Amino acid sequence: MSENKTIATTASARAFLDTVENETRRNDSYTLLDLIQKITGQPPVLWGNSLIGFGSYHYKYDTGREGDMLMAGFSPRKQNLAIYNTGFIRYPDIMKRLGKYKAGKSCLYINKLSDVDLDVLSELIEKAYDYMNKKYNS
């Protein structure tokens, strides 16, 4: 069975953010780092070479494959900020109030934080994180 490519590292999440070239994306990333750390109470951990995660959970599929994954996190991509948490889709009423974004199954894509309401984003991350924490760590 293959190993996960995305694993927690000991590298500094802040040092990684210092390397983000786009100034708006870098500043937005520092804001997200502080926001998600405050919501989760977890320190930022660099997963792989580009994901910053807060908290983790262990999963095991019926196939026997298992591993660890970040509970909440984000990545400053070249095109956008990708905010990860599989619980977002459970809250369509909150997402309607968020602002301008695109969504995948387990993440939000935001061009810049000024495109969304930060209070609503905080509410969404908190609800999704609480859901994941109860599901995997209770």
UniProtKB/TrEMBL annotation:
<protein>
    <submittedName>
        <fullName>DUF1801 domain-containing protein</fullName>
    </submittedName>
</protein>
<feature type="domain" description="YdhG-like">
    <location>
        <begin position="25"/>
        <end position="128"/>
    </location>
</feature>
<dbReference type="Pfam" id="PF08818">
    <property type="entry name" value="DUF1801"/>
</dbReference>
<dbReference type="InterPro" id="IPR014922">
    <property type="entry name" value="YdhG-like"/>
</dbReference>
